[in-house]
Amino acid sequence: MPKVSPKARRLYVRVPVWANLLGGALLVTQVITGISLAANSGATPTALPRPDRPAPPRPVTATTPTPEPTPTPTEEPTPSPSPTLEVDRIAEGTVVRLKKYSGTPSQVIGEVRDRKARLRYAELGKPWKPAKGQPEGLFSDGRYSTRQSFVTEEYGPDLDSEWFADIDAQRLWSDVDGGDSPYDAAVAMLDYKQENNFPRGTKGKDVASQRVPNGWLVAREMRMPPSELGRKARLELAVAVAVETGADRPSVIWITIPDTHKRLWPDIATVVSSLRVLR
């Protein structure tokens, strides 16, 4: 064992007995505490709870999209052609002069000068209303450029329907095929009017076809079926005069007077004989 030096021995002697006892007690306490810690250090440690693992994702089954059915194209209905007009025609080139009708012609009160149609002709007095141009605005009562007309009769249960006599001037409309000659243009106007402005079932008979200055005249009797509303007029004398004016389309004078006023049929000759190109 190691030896204690005299100085250390003197320090040890000076320490009181109670201090030595207290130190020994503390030493014993530390030894016991150390043994206890050492024993506890050999114990099996408590396992910490493991965190829950997320459930593995379920496999997603790929869905094959169902193709949409391709629509079968529907053919648009082909418009039905207009029913063939019933007309007894005078062939082009065949001249049949306009008949001289008996009656009392209207008085000539002036001259109509239509710059759009490039025509001038006699203006008639009563019962014809004064000549007028196409009204401005959205509403129209026809496709003329100048008109003279009058009401020939009122009919229907409440007399709310009217029939007219007309003298219209206009350039041949672009939607009407005027053909290659004034004869074709006059016939085209008559056919259009018969199909669109007369009752269904109207039968036409051409009664005149002749040359006029710068154009051609065709006259047609429009024979109408009986009216369920009580219209008295059964036949109408209609005349189309196509005139070459130097424009890209001919101009046409349209004259129509029903048989209820056939006393005025001489007015047709009055207008036709006065018709000239407006220079």
Structural write-up:
The chain is an alpha+beta fold. The chain has a domain of 184 residues: 3-Layer(aba) Sandwich (Protein Transport Mog1p, Chain A). Helices cover 21% and strands 27% of the residues. An eight-stranded mixed sheet has the order 1-7-8-9-10-6-5-4. A hairpin with a 7-residue loop joins strand 9 and strand 10. The protein starts with 5 loop residues before the first helix and ends with a strand. 24% of the residues are buried.
Task: Chart the SSEs and their pairings.
Layout: H1 6-14, H2 17-41, E1 87-88, E2 108-114, E3 119-124, E4 132-133, E5 146-155, E6 161-171, H3 182-196, E7 203-212, E8 215-223, E9 235-243, E10 251-258, H4 266-274, E11 276-277
Parallel strand pairs: 1-7
Antiparallel strand pairs: 2-3, 3-11, 4-5, 5-6, 6-10, 7-8, 8-9, 9-10
Features:
279 residues, alpha+beta, Protein Transport Mog1p, Chain A, 8-stranded mixed beta sheet, 3-stranded antiparallel beta sheet, 11 strands, disordered N terminus
The helix count comes to 4
CATH topology call of the domain at 87-135 and 143-277? Protein Transport Mog1p, Chain A
- Basic shape: globular
Classified by CATH, the class of the domain at 87-135 and 143-277 is: Alpha Beta
Oligomer classification: single chain
CATH superfamily grouping of the domain at 87-135 and 143-277: Mog1/PsbP, alpha/beta/alpha sandwich
Percentage of residues in helical conformation: 10-25%
| N-to-C SSE string, H for helix and E for strand | HHEEEEEEHEEEEHE
Strand order of the largest sheet: 1-7-8-9-10-6-5-4
Which residues form runs of ≥5 with pLDDT under 50?
1-15, 17-21, 37-52, 69-81
Over all CA atoms, what is the radius of gyration?
58 Å
Strand tally is: 11
- SS-based class: alpha+beta
Report the sheet-strand fraction: 25-35%
